[in-house]
Amino acid sequence: MSFVLKPAAGEPTQRTSNPAVVDTVASVIADVRTNGDDAVRKYSQQFDGWSPKSFRLSEDEVRSIVSSIPESTLDDLRFAQRQIRGFAQAQKDSIQDFETETLPGVFLGQRNIPIDASGAYVPGGRYPLTASAHMTVLTAKVAGVERVAATTPPNEGLPPQISVAAMHLAGADEILVLGGVQAIAALALGTETIAPVSILTGPGNAYVAEAKRQLFGEVGIDLFAGPTETLIVADDYADPFTVAVDLLSQAEHGPDSPCVLITTSEAVGRAVLDHIDALLPGLQTNAIAGPAWRDYGQIHVTDTLTEAYALADRFASEHVQILTEEPRQALESMRNYGALFLGEGTCVPYGDKVIGTNHVLPTLGAARYTGGLWVGKFLKTLTYQEVRDPAASAQLGEICGRLSRLEKFEGHARSGDLRAAKFGGADLLWGEIPTRAVTEQ
Question: 19-221: which CATH number, 3.40.50.2000, 3.40.50.150, 3.40.50.1980, 3.40.1380.10?
Fold first, then answer.
């Protein structure tokens, strides 16, 4: 019989924003909208103690920062970016422009055109999330985005060197040292010195996430982001120590990060509990991972893997790791996840940092209806139509007229009627075509 071995102690993360956060963000956005650079500088000084002459780093400043990074570290960044670039390029290659003739003389087509400008937010604060630069900047450049403006908060009054290096190597056209709502608002709205972008990407704290939510519509965004989530499906084959280590690898993202194990083995579940209790005291990020596991960690025991996969689909977690004897079964058995990690040789941190897939993924159940950030997010899939055959236009016009009148759209109907009359000789019951407008057949 299925049962819960460890329930979550805390309430589920809410999908609505904290009212105090909503009000603060709205106030900052309104101020930046009205006062531009002055407002940006005011909030940067207030929240980060940061007010340089220019928030945008010069080419010389970028070169100096990159040259200060050990070559071995730069090599690691380049390795990760090669993996991410390669996968993004394969995604782009799978997206095809096409044109098809649906009726004689009727041509319909599709073109994939890059967005003109993208803004990439690379978080600082608790961790310098250099991988976010790979995922947001590099993927946009592979898509063909002409201008990518990347921004990251200052680190104790200085540009964060490793983040700047990652953004530069990823191909950022502009690098700003600017954080928080003021950075998001400046990129979305534009100021006297910062040109606006068309889409905002990248994770951030609750204020950054709320700023993206409020500005969505004026600009595009990648996703509505919540706390990092991980879920593991395991059977008797799974190593409990590996399961415990991998759950805690994601718990350290934040004290509200849900970590869930669904297993067909009560013995595995109990062993995982014991290992986590032993591992947490020695984990440097215990102050974060401990509360996450205490309040949001769960262990569910099911009778069968079929039930386990069904339960995992109901969670629709951001990261789903499959530690079973036949992990590829999950490809056929599951449909709701941000990303799948198959087998013991694979782990979620690979996806976070180095393997090549994008780590900007849906949370809070959004995996039920969307995937994560990918090269296609930076492309506009646009259609076009051309009717070259007069007979086809006449046929379409007659049908368009009838269908439009079913919906009480007389103006639409008359556009169709006109083509039916001009190109097919049909009677125009509501008027006459002026002589100068008649097309010679």
Answer: 3.40.50.1980
